[in-house]
Specification:
Layout: E1 2-6, E2 16-22, E3 29-30, E4 35-41, E5 44-49, E6 54-59, E7 68-69, E8 73-78, H1 126-135, H2 153-162, E9 177-179, E10 182-184, H3 189-204, E11 207-215, H4 217-228, H5 235-249, E12 255-258, E13 261-264, E14 270-272, E15 274-276, E16 279-281, E17 284-285, H6 293-308, E18 322-326, E19 345-359, E20 362-376, H7 382-397
Parallel strand pairs: 14-18, 18-19
Antiparallel strand pairs: 1-8, 2-4, 2-7, 3-6, 4-5, 6-8, 9-10, 11-20, 12-13, 14-17, 15-16, 19-20
Helix pairs in contact: 1-2, 5-6, 5-7
Length: 405
């Protein structure tokens, strides 16, 4: 019997996914529950297990950066290795791009270079290839001076010198290649997902912003005290802990607009914007209002490590209504972050440092943290957001009000 292997729907909002890798070859035996392929959706990779025993008879799709709609057949499994397959075993026909006109002669009488030719087809010494790769240039653009046009080290050096460059691995972003006059970096499936989600957020959510400064002296002291007790906490840990308790007092911050109804959730799940090599991802800490700060800190470290090693599960990326994005370590003072749907609010954390502050008509120097908030005006009015901001600030500036121990 022939069974379809389909692109799975891994979440309520998932409409398409990217096939990252097959874990089995055509004709290979597959056991039910064994990992069959890997897909990417919502900025993370998921291993998909086979629903059937049998043999992987046909791969309709190969890994690529083209999205595949959910429930689309991507392969076939059969009970035996020689059962006849359905007639349609190829992916839908794609529109053919316009035919490329024949190569034209340049003004110097030389044929134009085919810049799309992969470097492995080019005759080049291993050192020349390595230098071109490190410099981020397409080696096909380099003219070789060796036997039969072989590209040597000196040819790559000459190419770079003409453009006022020296071979250095960090001149271009990783994976970028140089063409005449500009560099090209692949628009990966991961970045396409980021672009789609952020565009949807700005298009559908009427953002508005509040920003200000939190006095951080007491938190700085408490952080130092905990370090002396061999407990390493970050300022993000304090923000998660305090933010969860402020949200409990202002539950609309923990709401979401779903199917034209405002759903106010009891579980306070807070997302953290985490930068990884491919882009930005938002893992979620669960039930933050029910945990002490040390437990939250340990969970934060674990989930960020999983994010950076691409080991997050679907569940660890879902349903953060409130997100914290911290750019303070880069010296950023203020920014206006984009709300991460289905959330309704996000906190942007700027730098923390000593600044002059007027207290009771006196100019004093205090530790100050610059903060900003983005809110969804469909759900949260300005006055409500202002009250939440005021309470969050009060708790942060007076952590003795909270049970940290």
């Amino acid at each position: 019997m022939i069974k379809e292997v389909i692109m799975p729907k891994l979440g309520e909002t998932m409409e398409e996914g990217y096939l990252v890798a097959w874990r089995k070859k055509e004709g290979e035996r597959v056991e039910k529950g064994e990992v069959l392929f890997e897909v990417m959706s919502d900025k993370t990779n998921f291993e998909v297990e086979s629903l059937h025993d049998g043999y992987l008879r046909k791969k309709i799709y190969e890994p690529s950066d083209e999205p595949i709609p959910v429930i689309t057949p991507i392969g076939y499994i059969s009970d035996t290795p020689d059962e006849p397959l359905p007639e349609k075993t190829t992916k839908p026909a794609e529109k053919k791009p316009p035919e490329t006109p024949p190569s034209s002669e340049t003004t110097k009488g030389e044929k134009a270079s085919d810049t799309s030719a992969p470097s492995e087809r080019i005759k080049a010494s291993p050192l020349a290839k390595k230098m071109a790769e490190e410099a981020g240039i397409d080696i096909a653009l380099v003219t070789g001076s060796g036997p039969e046009g072989r590209i040597e080290k000196k040819d790559v050096l000459g190419y770079l010198e003409k453009r006022g460059r020296t071979p250095h691995p960090n001149l271009l972003p990783k994976g970028a290649r140089e063409t005449e006059g500009y560099a090209v970096q692949e628009w990966t499936p991961f970045r396409k997902i980021i672009a789609k989600r952020l565009t949807e957020s700005k298009k559908e959510i009427p953002h508005y912003y509040l920003q200000g400064r939190f006095l951080a002296d007491e938190v700085v002291k408490l952080k130092k005290l905990k370090k002396e007790q061999n407990v390493e906490l970050t300022y993000t840990d304090f923000l998660v802990f305090i933010g969860a308790r402020a949200i409990k007092e202002y539950p609309l911050i923990n709401a979401a607009l779903v199917e034209e109804e405002i759903r106010v959730y009891s579980a306070v799940d807070i997302g953290l914007a985490v930068s990884i090599e491919q882009g930005l991802i938002v893992p979620v800490l669960r039930d933050c209002d029910k945990k002490d700060i040390v437990s939250l800190s340990n969970e934060r470290r674990e989930i960020i490590e999983k994010a950076r090693s691409n080991k997050l599960s679907e569940e660890e990326l879902k349903n953060a209504r409130f997100v914290i994005s911290n750019l303070g370590m880069y010296g950023v003072e203020n920014f206006q972050p984009v709300i991460n749907m289905p959330g309704v609010a996000i906190m942007g954390v700027g730098k923390l440092g000593k600044e002059p502050v007027v207290i009771d008509d006196r100019l004093e120097v205090h530790f100050v943290m610059n903060v900003s908030f983005s809110f969804d005006h469909r759900i949260i009015d300005g006055a409500y957001a202002g009250l939440f901001y005021k309470r969050f600030k009060e708790m942060f500036e007076n952590p003795a009000l909270l049970a940290f121990y």
